[in-house]
Task: inverse folding
């Protein structure tokens, strides 16, 4: 939703509140659920649809082991566009250390 990559996921990833982890939900095909509490500062709205803010999106991608080339490209794009500051990408840089770091 932030146009940080031109790769389209084959699945929709949704983050539900941690308290919902024990609920029995019908999960449609093509939907992957993640659980975590998203604060108001970590949320952006696209019309009526809430999404995680760019920094949170990148952190979540790093935690889920997005391929390093995709993570690096998305992070550099977010930096270039001013959507995040370098000091906000600690977890992304840590995830990319084994692969040459954030710089290409």
Result:
């Amino acid at each position: 939703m932030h146009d940080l990559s031109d790769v389209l996921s084959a699945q929709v990833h949704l983050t539900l509140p941690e308290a919902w982890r024990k609920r029995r939900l019908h999960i449609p095909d093509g939907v992957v659920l993640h659980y975590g509490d998203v604060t108001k500062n970590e949320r952006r709205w696209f019309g009526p649809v809430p999404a995680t803010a760019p920094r949170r999106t990148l952190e979540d991608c790093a935690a889920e082991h997005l391929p390093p080339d995709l993570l690096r490209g998305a992070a550099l794009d977010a930096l270039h566009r001013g959507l995040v500051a370098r000091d906000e990408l600690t977890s992304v840089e840590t995830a990319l250390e084994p692969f040459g770091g954030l710089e290409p």
